[in-house]
Design a protein that fits this description.
Number of strands: 4
Number of helices: 1
Number of domains: 1
Radius of gyration: 15 Å
Oligomer: single chain
Strand content: over 45%
Shape: elongated
CATH architecture: 2-Layer Sandwich
Largest sheet: 4 strands, mixed
CATH class: Alpha Beta
CATH topology: Translation Initiation Factor IF3
Helix content: 10-25%
Structural class: alpha+beta
Strand order of the largest sheet: 1-3-4-2
Length: 94
C-alpha cells in the first residue's frame, strides 16, 4: 500500500487483494468529553485522528477491527463521556 495516512477499517480481515504483512499490535485512543459539550462529531473525529497517530507511531499503516465505545462517567455532579477507539495495528500491502 502507498505511504500516507493510516487506514482505519472496521473489517477484521483486509479487503480482497490486500494482505497483512505484519501485525504490530493493539492500538487504542481515549478522550474524556463533557456531556454538555456540543460537537460530538468533532470529538469522534479527533479521537480517530489520535488512533491514527498511535498506529503510525508503532509503524502500522492500517488498523483492523476498529471499534468505538462510549462509557458514561459521573462524579461530583458532572457527567462525562469516555470515548474509546481501538483495533489491531497492522502493515498492509497490495
Amino acid at each position: 500500500m502507498a505511504g500516507g495516512e493510516v487506514l482505519l477499517l472496521t473489517l477484521e480481515h483486509p479487503p480482497e487483494g490486500v494482505k497483512v504483512r505484519e501485525v504490530k499490535g493493539f492500538v487504542y485512543a481515549a478522550r474524556l468529553v463533557s456531556m454538555t459539550v456540543a460537537g460530538v462529531e468533532d470529538e469522534i473525529n479527533a479521537l480517530l485522528d489520535k488512533l491514527r497517530e498511535k498506529a503510525q507511531a508503532i509503524g502500522a499503516n492500517a488498523v483492523l477491527g476498529v471499534k468505538l465505545d462510549v462509557r458514561r462517567v459521573t462524579g461530583a455532579g458532572i457527567e462525562w463521556a469516555m470515548l474509546l477507539a481501538y483495533g489491531t495495528g497492522v502493515v498492509l500491502e497490495s
